[in-house]
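Demo today. Your pick:
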Amino acid sequence: MSALSVLLLVFLQTPDATQSAPATQLIGGSHLMDIGHNLGPVAIAVLVILLIGSLQSWAIILGKWSSLRKASAQSKRFLRAFQKAERLQDIAAVSEQFKPSPLVQVFEETYDEYRHQIDGTGEIRSLKSLERTAQTAASEAMTGMESRMVWLATIGSSATFIGLFGTVMGIIDAFMGLGTSGGATLRAVAPGISEALITTAAGIFVAVPAVMGYNQLNSRLRELAARLDDFGRELLNSIEDIHSAPAPPPPPPPDEYARVRERELPRDREFPRDRELPRDRELPRDRETPRGLHR
Protein backbone atom coordinates (compact mmCIF):
# COMPACT_ATOMS: atom_id res chain seq x y z
CA MET A 1 0.00 0.00 0.00
CA SER A 2 1.36 3.36 -0.99
CA ALA A 3 1.80 6.34 1.31
CA LEU A 4 -0.97 8.27 -0.50
CA SER A 5 -3.41 5.44 0.12
CA VAL A 6 -2.56 5.41 3.81
CA LEU A 7 -3.12 9.14 4.11
CA LEU A 8 -6.47 8.89 2.35
CA LEU A 9 -7.56 6.15 4.69
CA VAL A 10 -6.58 8.27 7.66
CA PHE A 11 -8.62 11.26 6.55
CA LEU A 12 -11.63 9.22 5.43
CA GLN A 13 -11.81 7.17 8.62
CA THR A 14 -14.61 8.16 11.04
CA PRO A 15 -13.14 8.49 14.53
CA ASP A 16 -14.99 7.34 17.62
CA ALA A 17 -16.41 9.59 20.32
CA THR A 18 -13.33 9.45 22.51
CA GLN A 19 -10.98 10.44 19.73
CA SER A 20 -13.10 13.00 17.91
CA ALA A 21 -12.85 15.74 20.52
CA PRO A 22 -9.04 15.97 20.74
CA ALA A 23 -8.67 15.72 16.98
CA THR A 24 -11.28 18.37 16.40
CA GLN A 25 -9.62 20.60 18.97
CA LEU A 26 -6.24 20.15 17.30
CA ILE A 27 -7.53 20.84 13.81
CA GLY A 28 -9.98 23.55 14.72
CA GLY A 29 -7.48 25.50 16.84
CA SER A 30 -4.66 25.45 14.28
CA HIS A 31 -2.66 27.90 16.35
CA LEU A 32 1.04 28.22 15.86
CA MET A 33 1.64 27.73 19.55
CA ASP A 34 -0.22 24.44 19.53
CA ILE A 35 1.71 23.29 16.50
CA GLY A 36 4.97 24.47 18.04
CA HIS A 37 4.46 22.23 21.05
CA ASN A 38 4.21 19.22 18.74
CA LEU A 39 7.42 19.96 16.81
CA GLY A 40 10.21 17.47 17.08
CA PRO A 41 13.94 18.24 17.40
CA VAL A 42 14.56 17.82 13.67
CA ALA A 43 11.83 20.28 12.72
CA ILE A 44 13.06 22.80 15.31
CA ALA A 45 16.63 22.53 13.99
CA VAL A 46 15.40 23.04 10.42
CA LEU A 47 13.39 26.12 11.42
CA VAL A 48 16.36 27.61 13.28
CA ILE A 49 18.60 27.12 10.25
CA LEU A 50 16.00 28.70 7.98
CA LEU A 51 15.58 31.63 10.38
CA ILE A 52 19.32 32.30 10.36
CA GLY A 53 19.37 32.06 6.57
CA SER A 54 16.44 34.46 6.28
CA LEU A 55 18.06 37.06 8.53
CA GLN A 56 21.34 36.73 6.64
CA SER A 57 19.68 37.08 3.24
CA TRP A 58 17.69 40.15 4.26
CA ALA A 59 20.81 41.76 5.71
CA ILE A 60 22.68 41.18 2.43
CA ILE A 61 19.78 42.43 0.31
CA LEU A 62 19.30 45.65 2.26
CA GLY A 63 23.02 46.35 2.61
CA LYS A 64 23.78 45.72 -1.07
CA TRP A 65 20.79 47.72 -2.23
CA SER A 66 21.91 50.72 -0.19
CA SER A 67 25.55 50.50 -1.31
CA LEU A 68 24.63 50.08 -4.98
CA ARG A 69 22.26 53.04 -4.82
CA LYS A 70 25.00 55.26 -3.38
CA ALA A 71 27.57 53.97 -5.87
CA SER A 72 25.25 54.64 -8.81
CA ALA A 73 24.47 58.19 -7.67
CA GLN A 74 28.14 59.04 -7.05
CA SER A 75 29.15 57.49 -10.39
CA LYS A 76 26.77 59.80 -12.25
CA ARG A 77 28.20 62.83 -10.44
CA PHE A 78 31.77 61.71 -11.11
CA LEU A 79 31.09 61.20 -14.83
CA ARG A 80 29.65 64.70 -15.12
CA ALA A 81 32.69 66.18 -13.39
CA PHE A 82 35.07 64.13 -15.56
CA GLN A 83 33.43 65.22 -18.79
CA LYS A 84 33.48 68.89 -17.79
CA ALA A 85 37.12 68.94 -16.61
CA GLU A 86 39.82 70.17 -18.95
CA ARG A 87 42.77 68.45 -17.24
CA LEU A 88 43.23 65.16 -15.44
CA GLN A 89 44.84 66.99 -12.53
CA ASP A 90 41.56 68.74 -11.84
CA ILE A 91 39.73 65.42 -11.50
CA ALA A 92 42.48 63.94 -9.32
CA ALA A 93 42.15 66.88 -6.92
CA VAL A 94 38.40 66.33 -6.32
CA SER A 95 38.14 62.55 -6.73
CA GLU A 96 37.88 61.99 -2.97
CA GLN A 97 34.45 63.61 -2.99
CA PHE A 98 33.08 60.74 -5.11
CA LYS A 99 34.75 57.94 -3.14
CA PRO A 100 31.75 55.52 -2.91
CA SER A 101 31.82 55.29 -6.69
CA PRO A 102 33.90 52.43 -8.14
CA LEU A 103 34.83 54.71 -11.02
CA VAL A 104 37.07 56.63 -8.64
CA GLN A 105 39.18 53.52 -8.01
CA VAL A 106 39.61 52.96 -11.75
CA PHE A 107 40.58 56.59 -12.29
CA GLU A 108 43.05 56.77 -9.40
CA GLU A 109 44.94 53.60 -10.28
CA THR A 110 45.08 54.45 -13.98
CA TYR A 111 46.14 58.02 -13.22
CA ASP A 112 48.92 56.83 -10.90
CA GLU A 113 50.24 54.55 -13.64
CA TYR A 114 49.99 57.42 -16.12
CA ARG A 115 52.02 59.76 -13.89
CA HIS A 116 54.61 57.03 -13.34
CA GLN A 117 55.09 56.59 -17.08
CA ILE A 118 55.39 60.28 -17.98
CA ASP A 119 57.69 61.05 -15.05
CA GLY A 120 60.92 62.44 -16.47
CA THR A 121 60.17 61.95 -20.14
CA GLY A 122 56.74 63.50 -20.51
CA GLU A 123 55.70 60.75 -22.93
CA ILE A 124 53.65 57.58 -22.48
CA ARG A 125 55.88 54.53 -22.63
CA SER A 126 53.14 51.91 -23.02
CA LEU A 127 49.46 52.48 -23.68
CA LYS A 128 48.82 48.75 -23.25
CA SER A 129 50.08 48.99 -19.69
CA LEU A 130 47.52 51.71 -18.95
CA GLU A 131 44.80 49.57 -20.47
CA ARG A 132 45.75 46.58 -18.31
CA THR A 133 45.82 48.81 -15.21
CA ALA A 134 42.30 50.09 -15.95
CA GLN A 135 41.01 46.56 -16.47
CA THR A 136 42.60 45.34 -13.24
CA ALA A 137 41.15 48.25 -11.27
CA ALA A 138 37.69 47.61 -12.71
CA SER A 139 37.93 43.91 -11.82
CA GLU A 140 38.99 44.71 -8.24
CA ALA A 141 36.15 47.21 -7.87
CA MET A 142 33.58 44.69 -9.08
CA THR A 143 34.99 42.02 -6.77
CA GLY A 144 34.41 44.31 -3.82
CA MET A 145 30.88 45.13 -4.97
CA GLU A 146 30.00 41.45 -5.46
CA SER A 147 31.09 40.40 -1.98
CA ARG A 148 28.56 38.26 -0.06
CA MET A 149 26.49 37.70 -3.19
CA VAL A 150 27.55 34.05 -3.08
CA TRP A 151 25.87 33.68 0.30
CA LEU A 152 22.64 35.14 -1.07
CA ALA A 153 22.66 32.73 -3.99
CA THR A 154 23.42 29.81 -1.66
CA ILE A 155 20.54 30.67 0.67
CA GLY A 156 18.12 31.09 -2.22
CA SER A 157 19.03 27.76 -3.78
CA SER A 158 19.34 25.67 -0.61
CA ALA A 159 16.45 26.95 1.54
CA THR A 160 13.88 24.92 -0.34
CA PHE A 161 15.93 21.74 0.06
CA ILE A 162 16.36 22.39 3.77
CA GLY A 163 12.59 22.79 4.07
CA LEU A 164 12.15 19.62 2.03
CA PHE A 165 14.40 17.80 4.46
CA GLY A 166 12.08 18.87 7.29
CA THR A 167 9.13 17.71 5.20
CA VAL A 168 10.63 14.26 4.70
CA MET A 169 11.42 13.91 8.38
CA GLY A 170 7.86 15.01 9.24
CA ILE A 171 6.40 12.36 6.94
CA ILE A 172 8.65 9.73 8.51
CA ASP A 173 7.55 10.82 11.96
CA ALA A 174 3.93 10.63 10.84
CA PHE A 175 4.28 7.06 9.65
CA MET A 176 6.13 6.07 12.79
CA GLY A 177 3.30 7.52 14.89
CA LEU A 178 0.82 5.67 12.74
CA GLY A 179 2.64 2.40 13.37
CA THR A 180 2.96 2.84 17.14
CA SER A 181 -0.65 3.95 17.64
CA GLY A 182 -2.01 0.70 16.33
CA GLY A 183 -4.65 2.41 14.19
CA ALA A 184 -4.80 4.76 11.21
CA THR A 185 -6.17 7.79 13.02
CA LEU A 186 -5.69 11.48 12.33
CA ARG A 187 -4.43 12.04 15.86
CA ALA A 188 -1.51 9.73 15.21
CA VAL A 189 -0.30 11.40 12.02
CA ALA A 190 -1.27 15.05 12.69
CA PRO A 191 2.00 16.09 14.43
CA GLY A 192 4.18 14.71 11.64
CA ILE A 193 2.07 16.30 8.93
CA SER A 194 2.12 19.68 10.71
CA GLU A 195 5.91 19.54 10.96
CA ALA A 196 6.14 18.73 7.26
CA LEU A 197 3.88 21.62 6.28
CA ILE A 198 5.62 24.16 8.54
CA THR A 199 9.13 23.38 7.33
CA THR A 200 8.01 23.43 3.69
CA ALA A 201 6.36 26.82 4.11
CA ALA A 202 9.40 28.17 5.96
CA GLY A 203 11.75 27.01 3.22
CA ILE A 204 9.65 28.75 0.55
CA PHE A 205 9.41 31.89 2.69
CA VAL A 206 13.21 32.07 2.92
CA ALA A 207 14.03 31.05 -0.66
CA VAL A 208 11.71 33.36 -2.63
CA PRO A 209 13.00 36.72 -1.27
CA ALA A 210 16.59 35.53 -1.53
CA VAL A 211 16.22 34.54 -5.20
CA MET A 212 14.37 37.74 -6.11
CA GLY A 213 16.93 39.89 -4.29
CA TYR A 214 19.81 38.08 -5.95
CA ASN A 215 18.37 38.61 -9.43
CA GLN A 216 17.72 42.31 -8.84
CA LEU A 217 21.15 42.96 -7.34
CA ASN A 218 22.88 40.94 -10.05
CA SER A 219 21.17 43.03 -12.72
CA ARG A 220 22.38 46.27 -11.14
CA LEU A 221 25.89 44.84 -10.78
CA ARG A 222 25.99 44.03 -14.50
CA GLU A 223 24.99 47.60 -15.32
CA LEU A 224 27.73 48.89 -13.04
CA ALA A 225 30.31 46.59 -14.66
CA ALA A 226 29.37 47.87 -18.12
CA ARG A 227 29.71 51.44 -16.86
CA LEU A 228 33.18 50.65 -15.52
CA ASP A 229 34.31 49.28 -18.88
CA ASP A 230 32.96 52.31 -20.73
CA PHE A 231 34.66 54.69 -18.33
CA GLY A 232 37.98 52.87 -18.65
CA ARG A 233 37.91 53.25 -22.43
CA GLU A 234 36.88 56.90 -22.15
CA LEU A 235 39.75 57.59 -19.76
CA LEU A 236 42.27 55.93 -22.07
CA ASN A 237 40.94 57.93 -25.01
CA SER A 238 41.40 61.14 -23.05
CA ILE A 239 44.99 60.25 -22.18
CA GLU A 240 45.74 59.31 -25.77
CA ASP A 241 44.26 62.58 -27.04
CA ILE A 242 46.47 64.56 -24.68
CA HIS A 243 49.68 63.00 -25.97
CA SER A 244 48.80 62.49 -29.60
CA ALA A 245 50.76 64.87 -31.87
CA PRO A 246 49.31 65.96 -35.21
CA ALA A 247 50.70 63.96 -38.09
CA PRO A 248 52.91 65.86 -40.55
CA PRO A 249 51.23 66.68 -43.85
CA PRO A 250 52.16 64.40 -46.72
CA PRO A 251 54.64 65.79 -49.23
CA PRO A 252 53.11 67.22 -52.39
CA PRO A 253 53.21 64.93 -55.40
CA PRO A 254 56.13 65.74 -57.72
CA ASP A 255 55.44 67.41 -61.01
CA GLU A 256 55.29 64.79 -63.69
CA TYR A 257 56.73 67.14 -66.25
CA ALA A 258 59.64 68.00 -63.98
CA ARG A 259 60.43 64.34 -63.44
CA VAL A 260 60.42 63.71 -67.17
CA ARG A 261 62.73 66.68 -67.79
CA GLU A 262 65.13 65.52 -65.11
CA ARG A 263 65.24 62.08 -66.66
CA GLU A 264 65.76 63.36 -70.22
CA LEU A 265 68.23 66.16 -69.42
CA PRO A 266 70.78 65.29 -66.78
CA ARG A 267 72.03 68.13 -64.68
CA ASP A 268 75.63 67.97 -65.98
CA ARG A 269 74.39 68.65 -69.52
CA GLU A 270 72.01 71.41 -68.69
CA PHE A 271 72.88 74.89 -69.76
CA PRO A 272 71.18 77.62 -67.80
CA ARG A 273 69.81 80.49 -69.73
CA ASP A 274 71.27 83.16 -67.51
CA ARG A 275 74.81 81.78 -67.76
CA GLU A 276 77.29 83.94 -69.78
CA LEU A 277 79.80 82.58 -72.23
CA PRO A 278 83.49 82.62 -71.30
CA ARG A 279 85.38 85.59 -72.61
CA ASP A 280 88.05 83.49 -74.23
CA ARG A 281 85.41 81.88 -76.39
CA GLU A 282 83.89 85.16 -77.59
CA LEU A 283 84.51 85.93 -81.20
CA PRO A 284 85.19 89.59 -82.20
CA ARG A 285 82.83 91.10 -84.64
CA ASP A 286 85.60 92.69 -86.82
CA ARG A 287 88.82 90.78 -87.26
CA GLU A 288 91.73 93.08 -86.51
CA THR A 289 94.81 93.25 -88.85
CA PRO A 290 98.08 92.31 -87.29
CA ARG A 291 100.38 95.26 -86.72
CA GLY A 292 103.29 93.88 -88.69
CA LEU A 293 101.40 93.46 -91.90
CA HIS A 294 100.76 97.08 -92.84
CA ARG A 295 101.37 98.03 -96.42
